[in-house]
Amino acid sequence: MAVYEYTARDGTGNEFSGFYNDIDSVSMLRTELDKMGYQLVKAHREKKIAKKQRIKQAEVVAFTYQFAGMTSAGLPITKCLVTLEEQAENPAFKSVIAEIRQDIQAGLSLKTAFEKHKKLFSEFFLGMVEAGESASKLSEALNLSAEYLEKRMDLKRKVRSAFTYPVFVGGVCLVVMAGLLAFVVPVFAKIYKQLHVTLPGPTLLLVVLSDLIRHWWWAALVGLVLVAMALRRIFKSPWVRTRFDVFKLNMPAFGRLNSLVVVSHFTRTFAMLASVGVPLIDAMKVASTVANNHKMAEISDELQAAIRAGNPVGMSLKKYDIFPPMIIQLATSGEEAGVLAEMLTKGADFIDKEIDRMIHALLVRLEPALTVVMGTFIGVILMAVYLPMFDYMQHLK
User: Fold this and answer.
1) CA 312 to chain CA centroid, nearest Å
2) Would you give the DSSP letter of residue 338?
3) Would the CA dihedral through 372, 373, 375, 376 be positive or negative?
4) Domain boundaries, the chain
5) Consecutive H or E run containing 122
6) Contacts for 290 with CB less than 8 Å, ≥ 6 apart
7) Per residue of the chain (397 residues), what is the pLDDT tens digit?
8) Is there a shared CATH topology between the 2-121 domain and the 161-397 domain?
9) Which fold does the domain 2-121 belong to in CATH?
10) E strands of the chain, at which residues?
């Protein structure tokens, strides 16, 4: 089966372009388009390489906003998807939209059509689509999904920025140290050899490291690749991932930040799914998946059992330290007033603001600390390089 890019004409004479997947020939494509009331203008076979291209989350957010706007205007779903397929600039995303459209035209539900692309559309998105479709609130569900995806994307960008600076400084420090070992240390080692100076332990260590970098750099690269592959394999283990998720919530400096991020994802997902009519148990299941933390998944299972037993959400959340007191209070008052989803959404907004403040505070503290650490490492290397010279000058005196 091949992929064809085509241009067709609708009943009013307007032309549009798109992709059609899993079709054998142009004649079969013409037949399929005729069934939908479209006339084929031109078509050519495409390679499936486009699917390997990366689809950005920002493209998914824009697609969801546009899809929500079109459905709220009363346009049929297939017509919306045809327009969105035509407007998509990324060939990979265009092909995905084409597949979704074809599945819907074949009689599949909207959720089932999107579910084939789970890597692109999350469990949260699928849950919102299913709830919106069943409750005839599709445009509202899509709009809430777009807002949620946009906020999550912004939050991920902010959290990543907190780790970008230390990684960048650490990388610069490693490059400077490698440069000193590769170019500066050999010069001094040669001078000391000519002067027959006895090298102290720190300088000898630098000379050995310098020789390794200059003559065995390829072995170091191979070793790093092997270590990276081994770590990747180790972290695929459920036992290791579970322990690492717990560590992330308790790690120094970043533990509180990671906890708030997990709680924000869980709370906002749960609130939004509940707001469109998804049962609390199902909403909590999806929220634990979106939170992407094994510890939170365990807590979610216990919360589901408590809710099934008839316990209020607020009282159930109170048993776990990971939830801030403000979230518990909002959940309790929201249940009493019958506005649980709205109150938890406000709580998630508050947590996101707290995350912003924590990221700013961490960066303020990290900048001078990393500068001191970088200067210390480089200073120790230079001290070890010049130490024999000081000894030699003292000997001359």
Assistant:
1) 32
2) T
3) positive
4) 2-121, 161-397
5) none
6) 122, 123, 124, 265, 266, 269
7) 567 777 778 777 777 777 776 666 777 777 877 777 777 877 777 655 444 568 888 899 999 999 999 988 888 888 898 888 888 888 888 888 988 888 888 788 888 889 888 888 888 888 888 888 887 888 888 888 888 888 888 878 877 777 777 788 888 888 888 888 888 888 888 888 887 777 788 888 888 888 888 888 788 788 889 998 998 888 888 888 888 888 888 888 788 888 998 999 899 989 988 888 888 998 898 888 888 889 899 999 999 999 999 899 989 999 999 999 999 999 999 988 989 999 999 999 999 889 888 888 877 887 788 888 888 888 888 888 888 877 667 665 5
8) yes
9) Receptor-associated Protein (1.20.81)
10) 2-9, 15-23, 39-46
Does the domain at 161-397 match CATH 3.30.70.240? Answer given as no
What is the token pair recorded at 153?
């994307």
> For the chain, how many residues are written?
397
Residue with tokens 């035209």: 105
CB-based contacts of 391, cutoff 8 Å, min separation 6: 197, 198, 200
* Residue that has been written with the tokens 């210390």 in this structure: 376
> Measured on CA atoms in the order 37, 42, 45, 51, is the torsion positive or negative?
negative
What DSSP string describes 163-216? HHHHHHHHHHHHHHHHHIIIIIHHHHHHHHHHHTPPPPHHHHHHHHHHHHHHHS
